[in-house]
Amino acid sequence: MRAIASGNFTEVPFSKGPVGSKGNSGGDSVGSSRKGNRRKSSGSDVSRVYGLQNMYQDIAEVDSMRFEKELAKLECTSATFIHKIRSGEELLLTRTQLADFKRFLAIMTYRSERRREQYYECRFDIMTLLSIRKHMSQNNIDRVQDTPHDEIIKESSAIDPKGVKTPMDTMFALSKYKGPIYVAELMDYYNLVCNYVCVWQAEEGPEFILTDKCSVGFEGEDAIHFQSFYVVSPKYMVVLVNRLYMWDLMKTVGLRKSWSGGELHANPVVINTKKLVRGAKDFTPTDVFKFKRIVAPKEKVYLGSSSFWVE
């Protein structure tokens, strides 16, 4: 199983030029060669950037708190749903709330410390590295992290035009994308927000791993995510499951089966506002999705937790 552990999504702030936990590592990091003077960061800078106050502040914006306000709305929806999971309440989300919840999880994955470290330490195969550098050169980007994170929501719509019905349609749309965000990052985000939500509950005894440094992991193969894991308490985990698994189509791409098996995947009950639903055109923002807590046996809890060990 190929897995990654990433930073806790309550720790990572937003800025167009984020100061990573290791700082700019010079020539060894991707895209660190822009000409001109760059003020070196100090310990107090890191403290300010990584502190809870003004966590999403972007000093390059006229309204420096614009993205903080935008992301706070998504975070509010997510916090409310997570509270329901942990308190035993009925798990209900409207179609709009469900979309916001997945956007929040995807953005936190995109902003993770682990993701930044991959760029600082230049941990890419040669073809990916060349692709990243080409993208940065074409878009006059110093560091991939300099891309405004708030634009990933808007830019993702560029690869989801009307008429997209299959993954191949999405790939075709992506091949035409010429925006500021590196296509692999954009595709990761797009896939996450298109995934299905499941809520796992550890059976009595074992617990999911929850630490200050590790709360997001994934299972995947050949750069394809099977499922992403977000621990919300030692007892509960939110899982974003690849839609191909939910549609029973993963076998068509020739990849192995997920270790979790189909028993830990369940579609929510959908309560549509309209009585007669013929297709997506009849969906409404007020449609309600009712999720259930899927009890994970101890062996699955242990396997799920193993995806959080740092490589």
UniProtKB/TrEMBL annotation:
Q: Which InterPro entries match?
A: DUF4238
State the residue spans of region: Disordered: 1-46
Enumerate the Pfam families for this protein. Answer: DUF4238
Recorded protein name is Uncharacterized protein
